[in-house]
Design a protein that fits this description.
The structure holds two protein chains of two kinds. By secondary structure, chain A is mostly helical. Helices cover 40% and strands 4% of the residues of chain A. In chain A, the strands form three sheets. A three-stranded antiparallel beta sheet of chain A has the order 1-2-3, with no helix packed on it. Chain A has a two-stranded antiparallel sheet with strand order 4-5. Chain A has a two-stranded antiparallel ribbon with strand order 6-7. In chain A, a hairpin with a 3-residue loop joins β6 (258-259) and β7. Chain A is globular and about 75 Å long. The N and C termini of chain A lie far apart (63 Å). Helices cover 38% and strands 13% of the residues of chain B. In chain B, strands 2-1-5-3-4 form a five-stranded mixed beta sheet, with helices on both faces. Classes of the chains: A mainly alpha, B alpha+beta.
């Protein structure tokens, strides 16, 4: 089936869906006078703040040069470009006149105050699981932010996707309006983890592959997806990590952005871990517990009682025990490039972060798809905006595509037991072309005012 | 034997293929403008241009560089006449200890070759990888702005 035929079918499906949904047009919810900040309790606001950090709200709703939560970040999708909205309580350009009811409908059913359907780039397919209490806390947090007046950015969606009523058809097909119900067969902490991972955390938005119409495929639950030119690894039992993730190492990684037996979080995940740094330990632990259980589904019954006191083994363990293969005897262009460009850090005995990761531990090199290691060699690893973090220098200015292919083949053969990657030249060329997009991936947590607080030149 | 083209001149080098470009420049070619700072590609003191891109020469092996055009700060001086950026850095007294300056100038050179009229935010974003321990960043920024206006003025007299 050609893409043209698929596109036509998709259009027809959506159109019919849209017609069907015409009978279920959403009503406008009346504006309210912007609520007084003092009408919310401190407890509610701080709970909302914690939840907003789990939801990574600020990352999408803050543009590079913009103020926190004022929106305007552009998202290039397969269907066109859309922009995040201003979710500060500014009455005209933000959500200042939205009632709790309107806010709740947007979060859980993807319909804005005026009754317009929202594009599912806003992950209401996950937020629909939110409890009433959590929606209220998020509302309290949002309505007590600093007001910022903005100019709305104009979306550039391709026809037919620019026709919003079609979203009703998409919802008919893929959206299940369902609040979370605890699973009585698993403990409270696993339930909390499940709720946060599938709901507010919307992990599947990146870590689950999508179908042609941009809906997450239920059969591919957390089996790996794509985001902003990066691969989001499988975080279930198909995880490519060569060293087993534990609850403790996952919690440490999510909180700090790195784990010594796995490396550091970069690409779109950098913003996620930067946000999770401020989240309550218990919530991060619950997420870690649930993901660890998914990764090791076979041990499922035993793991519900896993103690968290076997803790820091994974952070203090020396990586020296995983010896490197001797590079010197077997010179190839790839091994020479590695020795010159990479070995200074990655073959050194310096501890992280002053030395690089032992690449035998690298998920990027053991993953079925080389996209992330291509990105990392080209663009390096920059610390999250406004925070300290390990650095790897970029090599895109010096390394040619042919040399990168040699280097990747060498690293795959040396640091993994996996079969060689296929189609490397094409993939390397594709990722090189994506350079500007990848360099612009936000790494900030967005919580602080992201506008530049600069000393100006006299 | 590896051939490196530096500042328009070809040099045959008898060095190990994994030798960092910085060592080859300083030890073999006596081009001492680029400095050894951290040796880990994290500070920018060793910045030079490869085909016009600013790169960290301490982590780039010479085996990567056959048929590539390398430019060091020495290459910005033509016939004894300082280039626009080095002159601007001198006029603004941008150097304190001076150790980072060659790298700063080369990173700025990469930007101005691509974008002769960058705004302040573009300059700041571009210069971010290079560190100055003395803290003369404001003068460095002024020097780059001066070079931008000087270049514009030169271009103006030409046209």
């Amino acid at each position: 089936m050609t893409w043209r035929v698929a596109g036509t079918l998709a259009f027809l499906t959506l159109f019919l869906g849209g017609v069907a949904a015409f009978y279920a047009v959403e009503a406008e919810i009346a504006v309210i006078a912007p609520p007084d900040k003092n009408s919310f309790t401190t407890e509610e606001i701080s709970r909302g703040k914690n939840l907003a950090a789990i939801g990574n709200c600020a990352t999408c709703h803050t543009s590079d040069a913009g103020a926190a939560f004022s929106g305007g970040r552009a998202f290039k999708t397969a269907f066109g470009t859309i922009h995040s909205t201003n979710i500060t309580p500014e009455p005209e350009t933000g959500v200042g006149k939205w009632s709790l009811q309107a806010f709740s409908r947007a979060m859980r059913r993807g319909v804005d105050r005026s009754g317009q359907h929202l594009y599912p780039a806003f992950p209401y397919d996950h937020f629909t699981k939110l409890t009433d209490d959590d929606v209220r806390a998020l509302y309290a947090f949002v309505m007590t932010r600093t007001q910022v007046k903005t100019n709305a950015s104009i979306n550039q969606m391709r026809f037919p996707f620019s026709y919003r009523p079609l979203i009703a058809g998409w919802k008919l097909l893929y959206f299940r309006d369902k609040q979370y119900k605890p699973d009585p067969t698993i403990g409270a902490e696993l339930n909390r983890g499940l709720y946060l991972v599938d709901g507010l955390g919307h992990c599947g938005a990146c870590h689950t592959a999508r179908n042609a119409l941009g809906a997450e495929r239920p059969t591919a639950y957390l089996s790996g997806g794509e985001s902003d030119g990066w691969v989001a690894y499988a975080i279930n039992k198909q995880s490519p990590a060569p060293s087993k993730w534990t609850e403790a190492s996952l919690a440490h990684y999510l909180k700090t952005g790195w784990a010594s037996e796995h490396g550091i979080s970069r690409g779109p995940m950098a913003a996620v871990t930067a946000n999770l740094a401020s989240v309550a330990d218990a919530d991060v632990a619950a997420i870690a517990k649930y993901i660890a259980r998914l990764m090791d589904a076979r041990e499922l019954p035993a793991r519900t009682t896993t103690s968290t006191t076997d803790t820091d083994r994974s952070f203090t363990a020396s990586t020296d025990s995983l010896a490197y293969q001797t590079i010197a005897d077997n010179r190839s262009p790839g091994s020479e490039l590695f020795a010159g460009a990479c070995g200074g850090c990655h073959s050194s005995s310096r501890a992280q972060p002053y030395g690089g990761l032992n690449l035998r531990l690298s998920s990027a090199i053991n993953a079925p798809d080389p996209t992330n290691i291509i990105n990392v060699v080209n663009f390096g690893l920059m610390p999250p905006q406004g925070r300290p973090g390990p650095i790897m220098p970029p090599f895109s200015g010096a390394i040619s595509n042919e040399q990168l292919v040699e280097l990747l083949n060498y690293m795959r053969a040396t640091f993994s037991d996996k079969t060689p990657w296929l189609d490397l030249p094409a993939l390397v060329a594709r990722q090189r072309a994506r350079l500007p997009q990848i360099e612009n991936t936000p790494t900030h947590d967005g919580q602080a005012d992201a506008s530049r607080s600069q000393v100006r030149l006299p | 034997m590896i051939t490196l083209e530096v500042n328009g001149e070809k040099h045959e080098l008898n060095a190990e293929s994994d030798t960092p470009l910085l060592y080859a420049l300083r030890d073999e070619l006596a081009l001492n403008g680029a400095k050894f700072g951290c040796g880990l590609g994290q500070c920018g003191a060793c910045t030079v241009l490869i085909d016009g891109n600013a790169v960290l020469s301490c982590v780039i092996p010479i085996s990567m560089l056959a048929n590539r055009k390398i430019t060091t700060i020495e290459g910005l001086t033509k016939g004894g006449k300082l280039g626009v950026l080095p002159s601007a850095f001198i006029e603004e007294n941008a150097a304190q200890c001076g150790y980072c300056i060659a790298g700063m100038i080369m990173r700025a050179e990469a930007l101005l070759r691509r974008n002769p009229n960058p705004d302040d935010n573009t300059i700041r974003d571009h210069m971010e990888p290079n560190l100055c321990r003395c803290g003369t960043h404001m003068r460095i920024l002024k020097a780059i702005h001066r070079a931008v206006s000087t270049s514009a003025a030169i271009a103006g007299t030409r046209s």
